[in-house]
Amino acid sequence: MRAHAYRLLFALFFSYALTAEELPPPLYSFSLFGEYVRVNPATFWSSGVEGETLRYHQTDISFSYTHPFCSTFGLVFGANWVQTLVDWPENPDFNETLFNYIGFSTGGFIKPSEEWMWTATATAFLDTEILSLVDYALYQVVLNGQFICSKKLELDFGFILELGLNKEKIWPILGFVYSPTPEWKLSAVYPVNVSLEYKILPCLKAAAALRFLRNRHRVLPEEPNSQGIFEYQDWGGEGDLIYAPYPWLSIKGYVGSTFDGYLKMTNRHDEDAHYFKYGGAFYSGVSALLSY
Hints:
Elements: E1 3-8, E2 18-23, E3 30-43, E4 53-70, E5 73-87, E6 98-110, E7 116-127, E8 137-148, E9 153-164, E10 167-178, E11 184-190, E12 193-201, E13 204-218, E14 229-246, E15 249-258, E16 261-266, E17 274-278, E18 282-291
Antiparallel strand pairs: 1-2, 3-4, 3-18, 4-5, 5-6, 6-7, 7-8, 8-9, 9-10, 10-11, 11-12, 12-13, 13-14, 14-15, 14-16, 15-18, 16-17
């Protein structure tokens, strides 16, 4: 039986709404995850804001508890904090630069056979500036199914549903994980994990991966665009180095470059959208997962 430590995080996008980090048995009850990603200033090229720059940083800290009732069924509970820096000095819509969510998650897993495993989670993300369950909150529901075809091939499918801030959106989870040899592993599961890993040593891996970044927030009532909603969206390619000296500890460092992205602004009803587009920028980050 495969074992997982679940980390329940914000970011669709998709750094990550939910990912399952594989660990050897036993099934660890507690996990603590932290990540920091820093995107260097990106230069706008949209008309009217050409040459202006946007900085983006994100910090995630999460804790989860897995309670298995038996080898085939259990519950998962989690809490997390996400801080985002969106710094555009000439921003015409809002002056805030730091945004914070606290999240609370609950879910479960079921493994009806050796081939099948299903996980489902629901998460509420609350803005720490204004604790409103309606106007300033985001909700996500994730359903993920995994089917083990063989020792080398796994199929993944499901969906991610996001509700709140005057919008509903759904993304499919679809793809496969293929390990042709013990050293190589190809993960092509959109949008959860797109990477190619190579095991250099038992405790060291190198990887090439895609990273998806997305964040939505409502700004404060006193901002120029009062209670407007912004959406930051970007993606990039990176090189990773993953060090796992123990089964319960994994540390990852990465560097890469984003491609063209955008900052979308709407009014408080998520209408009258304006897209401010910018070019790619260098980024770097580090993450750590501790399970016990």
